[in-house]
Design brief:
Keywords: Signal. The protein is an all-alpha fold. The chain has two helices and no strands.
Length: 76
């Protein structure tokens, strides 16, 4: 049960932790060229902070479960 709460807290804090700066880096190249001899990726790879393992409806259920657990713990 502790793992579920920690997972839910991690998921809730994920967007806040991965937000980063909205300003583009000046030293960063606009388009990176693939390494020589490597085929192009069949799909665009998202940065880790934009990847979400769970669909929104599952995240909503997990948030509701976390609120219910906190309410039961506090006795309200």
């Amino acid at each position: 049960m502790i793992r579920a709460v920690l997972l839910a807290c991690t998921l809730l804090a994920g967007p806040a932790l991965g937000a980063g700066s909205t300003e583009p880096d000046e030293g960063k190249e606009e388009a990176e060229t693939p390494a020589a001899g490597m085929p192009p990726a069949p799909y665009a790879l998202l940065p880790p902070e934009q990847v979400n393992a769970f669909p929104p409806e599952i995240l909503a259920r997990m948030r509701a479960a976390l609120v219910a657990l906190e309410t039961a713990r506090d006795g309200n």
